[in-house]
Structure formats: structure tokens, C-alpha cells
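REQUEST FORM: STRUCTURE PREDICTION
Request ID: SP-0412
Submitted by: Lab K.M.
Chain count: 1
Length (residues): 398
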Amino acid sequence: MSHVPSMADAISDATIAAIEQEMSGDGVWIDPAFAKSHGISAGDEARIEEAVASSQQANLKVVLIEVAPDDARFQGNFANLSAWLHDDAGGDATYVGWARYSEPQLKVQSYGEQPSTMSVANVANHQNPDDIVAQVVQVQELLDDGNAEQLWFDVPRDERYSWTADEGIQTSEVVGGIGVVFALGAVVAGLVMWRRRRRSRTARFTLPSTVLHTVRAAEDRRLRQEADAEVLALGEAIGAGEPGGSANALDAWQQALDHYAAARSILSQEAAPADVVGALVLARRGQDARAAAQSRKPSAWRPPVRCWFNPLHDGSTTEVTWRDDDRAVDVPACKDCAADVRAGREPDDILDFIEGERTVHYYRLDLGAWSTTGYGTLDRDLLGALRTSSTKRRALRR
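STATUS: Completed
RESULT:
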């Protein structure tokens, strides 16, 4: 429904206490200001309560409130709020909420033994774009039926993710014969991805250790879903297409195949967060190679240069000199990271992972080819570096 977004206040301790009380009761809490701005009536709330009570597969908890971007605890992210609530409540639960972090839409976060939430929020948002109450009710139906993923892949490909608008995703099986997949994996025990939140927040807040790990585990699940979807999209685009007839096109097509095979190999195992990031990088490089192979007059394909501070950053890069401790290194950086470096600041969104109880920049960890090449930003032959790293690991095990 259309409405004028209200400026949300930081969520107070009293509000958290009220939410937790309702979570232990009927499992539904709707902020009065949120209800007013979104046109949710008492009858609508009763409808949501009925859906929660009738849920057969999930322990549903519905928390509808605007999470302010500058909220020191939750930083505009419903995942942070749900993790905080779950850390206090414990048990197995699936939380349904609302967030504006990327774009206004329903969010679903699960903890413990709960049905898969993959594609649930996507389907609910897509089928009921102007009805929040219907979205919440459909979440319950989708979790009970377990058919959200199939419904999402039945959606026309140009209506799904913005990043698939050109290539699309098809529901056909990927044609086999990709070739031999080599074993990969820079497994780092105890690492959970940490992506620093909005730079617009006015104060930093250190989450308690248990909450920090819970939040990062939820973020890691989201990233894994994104990687699965992008690798699938690449495979299906390859299976449905064919390269041009020039030597450059054939070379680029082979690169697309090799990158797809490597990314798929990573995700076929219990990949550590560092490896999941690597799979995403490989999938995006593979998509670039595939597009080049199918262009009208392709030139020799070279992997695009990504941001060294975070290889998931989009956009063009420029070279900057980064001074870290006693060393200086020239690295490619995206527009925002480059501006920070030139202003004498550390970029706000460096790719970090949790090691023990602290966050560490990825390039300070021993992640094999991922850290030595900066996920391919310093050495464009990322596949070659991965093969070399894998060979060395096998030799050390003998």
C-alpha cells in the first residue's frame, strides 16, 4: 500500500520488553505507528494472529516495526532485531518483520530447527506487493506447504531479481558435461561473515558476543542463498545459450564454464563464509565471461577488476595506495572506498569475518587464494591461483 514513510525512532528498552512479552504470548507485535502508517486495522491484526496460531510447520513470530537506519543497536536491519529477540527467547523460531535496508519489503529470519525460508519472502512480496497483511499470512501458508522455492522459480524471469533482468533465470535443468570440477575450499574454523552496516549511523554499538554470532549466522544464510541463486542463474544461462563463432567468443565461453564449475563445486559442500564469498565472485566473473561470449563482436575476455576492500562491491574501480600498519600497497577500489582512502579514512565496508570473538579484515587471514589474490583483484587469474592453492594443500597432506 502506498504511504509516506515515517521517521522511525530508535527502538527503546521498553519497546523491546513489550515485544518480548508478546512473543511469549500470541507471537504478534505491531507497533502502533507502523500500523497507522501502513493502514493495519484491528481486524488485520486478528487475521495475522490467526495465521500464526494455525502454523503447523514453523514457530512463527511477527514483529512489525520500522527499524531506523541510525538505531545504534539494530542499524535499520530487521535481521539484527530478530537476532536480539531470539537471543533472549532461545528455542526454534521464524521471525517475520519489515525492513527498508535495501528496499521496503517483508523479511523472514529463521533460527534453529525450522522449515526452509528460501524464497518465502520473495514470493510473498511478489504476489502481494501492496498488502502487508496478506504477505504475512502467505508466509505462514508457504512455510506449511514448503513450495516457496518452486513458486519463485515459476515467476517470469524478468520479474525476479534486478540482477537477472538481462540474463534471466530459467527453470530448466542445466545441461551436463561442464567438465571435471576441482576441489576447492579455504575452510576457516569459526568464521562467520561480518559485513559492516550503514555508514550513516551516528554511533557504533558493540553487540553482545552471542548476539553478534547469531546476527552473522543469519547474514551468512542470506549470503549463501544469494550465492546459490547466482550460480544457478549462471548455469541455466549457459545451458540455454551458445557462444559466437569467433575464437574470442569460444575462449570467453570456456571461461564461463570454468568459473561456473568452480563456483558450483564450492557450494556443493559445507562451504565456509569465505568460500561462499568466493563462489559469488566466481559466479559474477562467469556471468561477465558468458555475456562477452554472446556479444556481437567480442574482444579477448579479461575478468573485470573488483574492489580490493570488498570484492562484492559493484561499479568501476580506481587505484589507490592503502597504508596498513607499516606497509603500503596499490589496490583497486570502488568509488566509495577510494574516496575514504583519499580522505585518510579506513573504508567503512571492508570484507570482514569473525575469528573467535573479534572481527578481522579478510586480507589479514590465511584464506589461501582468496586472501593472497584479494579474491582476484590483485591477480586476475583467480582460477589458476585456486588450482595452485589446492595442489599445495594436497601435497602438504601427503
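NOTES: Strands lie at 28-30, 60-64, 93-99, 105-111, 192-194, 317-324, 327-334, 352-355, 358-361.
Reviewed by: T.R.
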